[in-house]
């Protein structure tokens, strides 16, 4: 079944890295890649610009998109892949939602930050907004300067306080299917032992993964969950992180913009955000 993958780009090095990672990850899969650039101007700015200048700006963005497409096609001699470009005048979130519906997008790939990304935060503001707002398909976030590694091991952190259904787990399975990856279920330990609800949710999760090689790991309680996750990634040589983004989830806690700097979580491997 052909995949339809959306890659938002601002033509930064980080967005080029996202494209490269996606092409390598899905090298054996039939895919249509959609390169999206969304350039918006505030009404106050638009009123001060002539129509001629606005047309020039759009033409320049379109030229950059076409050049990006040409470079990708020329350097990616893969019969499984084809490419389309999308130039949008909408805000990025709206442009993504429009593309999801129009192009039947089933995955978004993007970088941790764009051309103006600040070093002190773990995701750029665009990435944070998209993770918060897009609920129609998974988002694969690629760290800055990340070199492709076959994802032989995928970590799935959970506190077992939530029941996972087939739709929640399906994206995790699909990523595991790509390279027959092992799935490491990581329990973020807040207590001595699981309660009845957590036990049940663990059993259901393991049933979902019965056909996949998987294991369960308990992690000691750290003051910072972010340190906990990255320590685990390094210790077990994890190649990809996957989490379901639901109310009061770990993701929700770390992407609230006021506390990003306090938590300081920077994913050191590609990070799949699965919408609830």
TrEMBL record:
Ranges in coiled-coil conformation: 51-82
Cross-referenced PANTHER family: STRESS RESPONSE PROTEIN NHAX (PTHR46268), UNIVERSAL STRESS PROTEIN UP12 (PTHR46268:SF6)
One Pfam family in the UniProt entry: Usp
Annotated organism of origin: Hyunsoonleella jejuensis
InterPro entries: Rossmann-like_a/b/a_fold, UspA
Residues that span the membrane, as ranges: none
Domain of life: Bacteria
Protein name per Swiss-Prot or TrEMBL: Nucleotide-binding universal stress protein, UspA family
CDD domains referenced in this protein's UniProt entry, alphabetically: USP-like
UniProt record similarity statement: Belongs to the universal stress protein A family.
Keywords linked to the UniProt accession: Coiled coil
Annotated UspA domain residues: 2-143
